[in-house]
Amino acid sequence: MHGRGKNNTVQSMDIVRYSAKKTQRKISINGDPSKSIWQEAAWAELKNYLGPIPEPFPRVTVKIGYDEEALYLFFNVSDQYVKAVHKGYQAEVWKDSCVEFFFIPGDDLALGYFNLEVNCGGSALFQYRKNSYCTEIDEQDFNQISIYHSLPEVIQKEIETPVNWTIEYRLPFKILENYCRLTRPKKGIKWRMNLYKCADETSHPHWLTWNRIVSSKPNFHVPEFFGRLHFE
Q: Which one, 88, 133, 227, 230, has the greatest CB density within 10 A?
């Protein structure tokens, strides 16, 4: 379990930046990487890790874009020892092969942060955290998120050979406005975020991060280590 409770941070450090491009058209969520929004976007790669160095080391790249109404993310994962046994909304998906997007919808840590966690089968957990309180995002709100997953919903027998999988989703801004004050993206707006990959209860557990975290043990719930998401 990657730090679901106490903050174990031991020091702070510099943060990295990702620039998200705007699209003028609503995007279909179908896992197609050739769509113009993804052809024009840069990759963010998860090169850092917590705990022991993973062996093999998954390659995880992420692209982010936005329009007037929503944020779009595309995760591409070259992985091994993959499974998905936790099914349904708010399941313990971080125990499976899972990708995660933690973000503050603004540039102020005091806003609190959201954590959206999606396993390789498309099951998800979505929460908002502020001042040590955790609020589960209402399922009716969550159902407005469109999610594509390339692998089956349930993978009981771990895939031990190398496999590539993708997650793509559309996250409407109006959902977030039900839980906190939101700075809607436009050119010049800055949010804070980190991107993660984990597999807590697979045969080869690991914890990868985009912006580096310094912690005494694996812990993703450390917003002071979030990088910056700039909107173009």
A: 227
